[in-house]
Amino acid sequence: MAEFEAQRGMPADADTVFAVVSDLDRLSQWMPGPVDVQLTGDGEVHADVEPRGVDADGLVRVRPEQLRVEWGHAPDYAGWLQVEHADPGRSSVVLHLSFLGDQPETHGGEPAAEVQQWLDDGLGRLENLVAQG
């Protein structure tokens, strides 16, 4: 098992940021480049991660009362994104991934470093998207 996490301040309040991340039709606007996630149904997504040969269906749940989005592909993978309140007009986002199987990411090295970079890239894209309004 391997856990990855990244956090970043956002230039907008928590409700504004959550409106972006909870709009599942906008996933491609802020997800890191190697990750392609498409909404396929109510609470269902299809993920394609070309560098890893991942082509899988999963579930996603939006929890507005918690400003949280959760997703996963049982039994190998789960993740969540939490938007947190900060100073007026600002917020913070925590992005967390858990690899629960025997994927390359669970063994460290370059695959693990790439996942951490993808988290940072995704949060950077989200920050830019939120800043554009």
- How large is the radius of gyration? 14 Å
Q: Order of strands side by side in the largest beta sheet?
A: 1-7-6-5-4-3-2
The total domain count is 1
Cα shape: globular
Largest sheet: 7 strands, antiparallel
Counted by DSSP, the helix tally is 3
> What name does the CATH topology carry?
Alpha-D-Glucose-1,6-Bisphosphate, Chain A, domain 4
The span between the termini is 37 Å
Strand content: 35-45%
**How are helices and strands ordered from N to C?**
EHHEEEEEEH
Output the CATH class name: Alpha Beta
Q: What low-confidence regions span 5 or more consecutive residues with pLDDT below 50?
A: none
Question: What is the mean predicted local confidence, pLDDT?
Answer: 91
- CATH architectural name: 2-Layer Sandwich
CATH superfamily: START domain
Helix and strand content put the structural class at alpha+beta
Helix content: 25-40%
The number of E-state strands comes to: 7
Report on this model:
There is one protein chain. By secondary structure, the chain is an alpha+beta fold. It has one domain (2-132): Alpha-D-Glucose-1,6-Bisphosphate, Chain A, domain 4 (2-Layer Sandwich). Helices cover 27% and strands 42% of the residues. It contains three helices and seven strands, in the order βααββββββα. It has a seven-stranded antiparallel sheet.
Defining traits:
133 residues; 42% strand; alpha+beta; Alpha-D-Glucose-1,6-Bisphosphate, Chain A, domain 4
